[in-house]
Protein 1
Amino acid sequence: MFVPTPTQAWLLLFVAGLLEIGWAVGLKYTDGFNRPLPSLIVVATALLSFWLLGLAIKVLPVGTAYAVWVGIGAVGAAVLGMLLFREPATAARIACIVLIVAGVLGLKLLSD
């Protein structure tokens, strides 16, 4: 049974977060899961993201790992939403994104 080192766990968590961005943004392309190929890609990406998160929480505190995973996904989806879908990029939204990044970095720094 694979148990990652703490460094590996953080790397797995980072990749899981990137995959979360992929499936979250990919949902837009599924048309409510009415388009088979995008839907299959979203489900596969989500499963891989969850699996990597599960491996990471073997070592990392579950609350920290989950918050970092969600934070990476939320920031990435928000930024890509602005870039790909012309969602508003107001100062308030950007400030909130910066706060999420600060929180994720704080959790990482305080967990070591």
Protein 2
Amino acid sequence: MALQNAQVVALQLEKVRPKLPVLYERDDTFFSLIQKRDVERVSTRTARIPLQVQPGGSFGYASFDGGDLGRGSGTAYDYAQITPVGIRMGIEITKLVEYATDARDKAIENAAKRNVADAMKQFRHDLDASLQTAGNGVFGEVTGVNTGTNTLTLADAPFGARLLRENQNVQVYDPTLTTNRGSCTISAVFKGLGQTQSIVVSSIPAGTAANDVLVVDGVSGAQPTFIYGIPYHHNTSTSGNWMGISRSNPYAVSNGVNANNAALTLPPIRLAFNQIRQSIGIDSLGNLLWHGHPAQVAAYEELGFVISEIEKGGANQDLELLFKNKTMGGVRIKENVHADTTRLDLINLETWGRVEWLPIDFYEIGGATVFPVYGASGGLAASYLFYLATGVQFFVDNPRAVSSITSLALPAGY
């Protein structure tokens, strides 16, 4: 009888492909744009950002034939106040993982070393996601609760589930951000375009209901404060405060165009530019870029579909119908999959900066950056921890130099 394959399987070598693809998104689009902008090293005391807010001088007609020249005035100043917030990310690895992957003849990657690099990329991703929020750490809004499957359905706008990820801890707050219902860990995220936005969690905190919000892990109390993101600074509200200054002051209020749930058209784009020019001068637009979700960039492209005419000067030119090199009003567009799907922001990079008492680094005690875990017995557990940490907050020093288009309708399929 012939020797069959089943009888020699024990002799065969197992092949493991040496390439390790990443099967999830971890962009840091906006954070990378402003990471190297204006940085102020500060202590834990509130930092002041001085602002020149009003002109001075008494201008008018005068009779120099003994006339009264009147009294004068001077330039007025104010200051914004900002304090960094502490942010951390903890990574835990068992010793067996280290032992089992510490050589090329055991594994295609050293899992412990790879986790160090992965943690930094993920930390930057999470900072970028946080910069899309309005200073309160709200990452999503609940629209439906299924306790049988531990599934929370989320509102499509502004973020759906796009700021959330697997293995992320979140807290559930009531809609007024007053009551903390409890915490849970996300085990699965469904955030595809055109897909029902939802997450599966370890357990649904008691009392969770529609209109509740998902808040970043670690903050506490009513009205929590987290990273001051784009909608905090690009805000047309005249109530509340902006970095300690009442928004009743015109200089604390950003420019902005409300689209009132209409699809993107050209007039709001032009108006957003002209708002800045009217506010700070026609030659003072600065280093601008449009920041938005691909949904609104698609809406802009679709405006061009109906009016485009293709002229090709030579037979070897490529056909590019999707506007690969995109600008809007001569200003480049930066797409971000974390951005609010209902807005476009005219970012002035010269106005953005940050204060920090700790740049992104490994948490360290006495030179040590890796820390043991203790078991139930009081002895060591066969695992260890390391942390990434920063103390940072983000500011805009001139709300009049930025603008936005908000409450935009989504194009089909998004």
Protein 3
Amino acid sequence: MSWLKSMMEKEPKEPENPIGTVVIGNIQPDMHDTAKEAVRKALKRAGFKTIDVGKSAPPQVFVDKVKESNANILAISVNTVPAKNNLGKLDEALKAAELKEKITVIMGGAAVRKEDAEAMGALFGKNKEEGVELAKKAVGK
């Protein structure tokens, strides 16, 4: 029942003085956004500005939004194996844009494990609480 409660939670207010900016979304072709939405709302409640690129976002969309918003953190939801297979493309796009060393990448979802995140130099969170904790550490809070 807790998932139902989280689905029905109201949209948190935008933080007045955000502690960081997070670009968040489901990497292509992942269309399962329930977990991503729970993490996004938890990040907002924790004081982060969130920029949602939505479901099934191509790697370049993540890169463009990170550049455009000057985000500190990129949060990726990966719930299908085909989406997991696109993590390499995202990693290459981040390197090509010279963003790899400038941002913290956090990922989670049903199709990824801690080892997958580490292989990309990313942090792994298994739930929304861990996602918020990782994001706070990334911005020094």
